[in-house]
Amino acid sequence: MLQDRGFGAYAFLLSAWLMDMLLWGSAFSYGIFLEHYTSVEFPHAPRTTLALVGSVQTGILYLSSLVLLPVFRWYPKVKRVMMWVGFVLTLAGLVSAAFVKEPWALVLTQGVMVSVGSSILYWPVLPYMFEWFSEKKGLANGIIFSGASIGGTCLPYAIQALLQHHGRRTTLLVLALIFALLLGPVIPFAKARLPLSRVVKPGPMNFHFLSQFVFWILCTANMCQALGNYIPTLYLPSFASAMRQGDIGTTGVALYNASSAFGQILVGHFSDRFDLRLCMAICALGSSTSVLLIWGLSVASTIAPLVIFALFFGFFAPSWASLWPKFSSVVAGDDAATAMALFVGGRGIGTLLAAPISEGLLGDGWPTGNSQFAYSLAGYGPLIVFTGVTQFASVLGVMYKLFEPRTR
């Protein structure tokens, strides 16, 4: 089958996009669940525990790539079976979460079970992208990753409506049904380009790039970006409530995700055509500026700044992920899938750290001012500054070129 075009390539792209839309889109919409849990179902439970559900869900999705991608590389014959195992485990986690009665049980079900199942289903698929696409892998990666953004645009409204009118149990059961109906039929199309009989058994995994300073510069920039990337989607609903702006937080999450869909496709396309340093600088400066100058200066009297922030941050920050194939090609050449697992895992570490760090920044011990701006709102100032600074720090990635090995 041909690379970059043909029915097989497009069918694979649609299958991977649907998986990304539901598996990641639901995880990125957890802020809606968090607001409902803290205000309605578990108002007296530790907020840190409830926030941990979303952090664990996204963190495991990212970090599991470090384990699953090497395993599936060495044992390609188990990929198809394990994808169905992951599919069943994901549904079981959603159904179980619908019936638990304690916050710690939500961590185990909606957090751990769902994310482990989603990881086993999703990660066998991503390396296939390098088989199906060569010249347009940046664009293909951007299209696949935009699925989470589209899911994050539609799901917050559906989840909020279901939670308000029917509660947690019905909401999670409906999600399980949607997953079953949409993902089950497309799993057979999420497959390798070459038949298994023609795939050469892989040699030892090559980690030579770990000794290159280029990798560590890009890895550090990636970690900095990850630390602040998840915070706005997690706290926009509760921030809007604290600003007495009603349901604009849900709208903000949806706008963030809608904007990121366009951003990831465009940045992925640009990475195939333009210098990687330019793409990194645009993402880093665009996201940090939107946090420090738009979110930080938003006021309770108008919703416009929060809407503009969601659009700008959504366009620039998530688009960083569309650069991972380029990062991987720079540091590892033909063995790009191995390097990409580490960049994905780096974001997972940052996401896991984001919940405890952000909860600490929101604590009562931080000073607040009398200004009308968001910087003075109930401890949100430190959170906003931290998010903006970490996004800006990711611009150091442009320095990788200074340490790239010279060739004659």
Automatic annotation (TrEMBL):
One of its GO terms (cellular component) is membrane. The keyword Membrane applies. The chain crosses the membrane at residues 7-30, 50-69, 81-100, 106-126, 138-159, 171-189, 209-228, 248-266, 377-403. The keyword Acetylation does not apply. Gene3D superfamilies: MFS general substrate transporter like domains (1.20.1250.20). Its main location: membrane. Keywords: Membrane, Transmembrane, Transmembrane helix. It is found in: Membrane. GO terms for molecular function: transmembrane transporter activity. Pfam families: MFS_1. It is a multi-pass membrane protein. PANTHER family: MFS MONOCARBOXYLATE TRANSPORTER, MONOCARBOXYLATE TRANSPORTER. Belongs to the major facilitator superfamily. Monocarboxylate porter (TC 2.A.1.13) family. This is MFS general substrate transporter.
